[in-house]
Amino acid sequence: MTSIGEDLLPSTRRALLHRIAVAQRDGRAPSLVAAVRREGRTAWSGARTGVEDHGPDADTQYRIGSITKTFTAVLVLRLRDEGLIDLADPLEKHLPGTGVGDVTIFQLLCHSAGLGAETPAPWWERTPGDLRPGISDVLGDRPQPHPAGHRHHYSNPGYTLLGSLVAAVRGVSWEEALRREILEPLGMHRTTSDPVAPHAGGWAVHPWADVLLSEPVEDLGLMAPAGQLWSTTEDLLRFAAFLTAGDDRVLPAASVREMRTPAAPVEAGASGYGLGLQIVGGEGRVLFGHSGSLPGFVAGLWVCEEEDVAAVVLANATSGLPAATVAAELLNIVVEAEPRIPDSWRPLREVDDELLALTGVWYWGTMTFTLSLAADRGLQLTPLGGMGRGSTFTHRPDGTWTGQNDYYAGETLRVVRKDDGSVDHLDLGSFVFTREPYETGAAVPGGVDAEGWRGLGG
Questions:
Q1: What is the pTM of this model?
Q2: 59 to each of 26, 46, 70, 189, 390, how far by Cα in Å?
Q3: Are strands 401-403 and 412-417 parallel, antiparallel or unpaired?
Q4: Which residues of 55-91 are buried (b: 16+ CB within 10 A; e: fewer)?
Q5: Of 23, 296, 317, 361, which residue is least crowded by CB atoms under 10 Å?
Q6: What is the layout of strands, in order, in the sheet containing 285-294?
């Protein structure tokens, strides 16, 4: 119905429009809006609708469901960054009397607190929030069906507790903290707790006939931090930009990266979950973001940091249209049709002779690695031949380096020198790397056989 995006090739724009047209038709959604952001600005937006001569656009509000949880997580991380809480704190320290106060804030953020997925009946998404006036009404008689910390178990009540935590520590409502600390600084003026025109109506579509049933729009009360918000594609792309690079007015880049780091073990085949963000892999890239749904609405927001592309899809149907899947597909269409042009290679601004002397080949036992320089005095350890564990390392003021990836994440790499100041070996979390395999005279754990290397006959 509508499509803009002079930034992209005509063939890419047509592929994006075709995908949302098929999604709206096959998903039988009354309307759908979508948009893609690339390299700092909106590259494309489009919409489809079943209403003649009238359609939604980038300023039309839809309910975004559980994407709200990411906003709540940002508010909690802000409290941590200000020193008002620690993520390891038990909930009871800041929000006493819940009955589940032993769970930690970290566990609530990543859905590993063992809490139930839903509130007691009636279903909270389709009933007024004043039916659940207190925390006990949200948690019910069996609030914790799983032991805390043992598994990822998605919990809507868990984010109610986090919203109540924000209100208790800030001394203002969750809505007020959200508006003041996130929405206003990021310029998200069309993201609200209640619908503000122009907004879509929520509909259920009959499974066996092309007829509609209006869905109720309820104020979720205490459950609002889990799914209350209304937003637009334009606002959500602003939020995606923040989730990519951070914003010191809201959260710095380091804290946003922490949100995107998998934080709890998940069931086999499931996607990962960080702190308020879902993390999925596929098509050779990692996406982070969140899906969302409430009666009458489905939503999906995904970001690929490596390609600097984000996509959002919003629709006003209870079911039938996989908004999060379509958002990921829009992102992949852009990335595959028009891959990002890499930055030019540039030499380092300055040379540190001591660091330069560390580069080259190193051995852990008989396994071969290379060590190379990165920006800002960082190092890159790479196994040769695909055997062994590699990592990037960031420099610390004390002259050591901290691992950033996989097995060596958080581990310390340091240079161990001989009495004369020359390098003896590298120590990486107790692993010794030497310039020769099992180098004679180096501090190899267990020592090196004095007879040295030999053949079968020796």
A1: 0.89
A2: 24, 12, 21, 10, 46
A3: antiparallel
A4: bbbbebbbbbbbbbbbbbbbbbbbbbeeeebebebbb
A5: 361
A6: 2-4, 41-49, 31-38, 309-315, 297-304, 285-294, 278-282, 272-273
Other C-beta atoms closer than 10 Å to the C-beta of 371 total: 18
**Cis upstream peptide for 122 (omega within 30°):** yes
Nearest to 228 by CA among 59, 33, 64: 64
Both tokens of residue 127?
Answer: 């009933």
DSSP string for 215-232: PP----GGGHHHH--EE-
Q: Using the structure block, give the residue that is written with the tokens 């692993």.
A: 431
φ/ψ of 49, rounded to 5, equals: -150, 155
Residue 174, Ramachandran bin (φ over 0: left; ψ between -120 and 50: alpha; else beta): alpha
Say how far apart CA 34 and CA 315 lie, in whole Å.
Answer: 9
Tokens encoding 4: 């803009």
Q: State how far the Cα of 255 lies from the Cα of 246, in Å rounded to an integer.
A: 8
Helices marked H in 228-350: 233-245, 253-259, 323-337
Q: What is the CA radius of gyration of the chain?
A: 26
| Owner of token pair 């939020």 | 239
Cα–Cα dist 91/102, whole Å: 6
Classify each residue of 322-353 as buried b or exposed e, where b means 16 or more C-beta atoms within 10 Å of its C-beta.
bbbebbbbbbbbbbeebeeeeeeeeeeeeeee
DSSP structure string for 337-380: HSPPPPPPP---SS--HHHHHH-EEEEETTEEEEEEE-GGG-EE
Per-residue pLDDT of the chain (458 residues; tens, 9 = 90+): 455 555 799 999 999 999 999 999 999 999 999 999 999 899 999 999 997 767 899 999 999 999 999 999 999 999 999 999 999 999 999 999 999 999 999 999 999 999 999 999 999 999 999 999 999 999 999 999 999 999 999 999 999 999 999 999 999 999 999 999 999 999 999 999 999 999 999 999 999 999 999 999 999 999 999 999 999 999 999 999 999 999 999 999 999 999 998 886 655 555 789 999 999 987 778 999 999 999 999 999 999 999 999 999 999 999 999 999 999 999 999 999 999 888 898 888 888 888 999 999 999 999 999 999 988 899 999 999 877 899 999 999 999 999 988 899 899 999 999 989 999 999 999 999 999 999 988 888 999 988 888 898 75
Q: Apex CA 99: angle with CA 96 and CA 103, to 5°?
A: 80
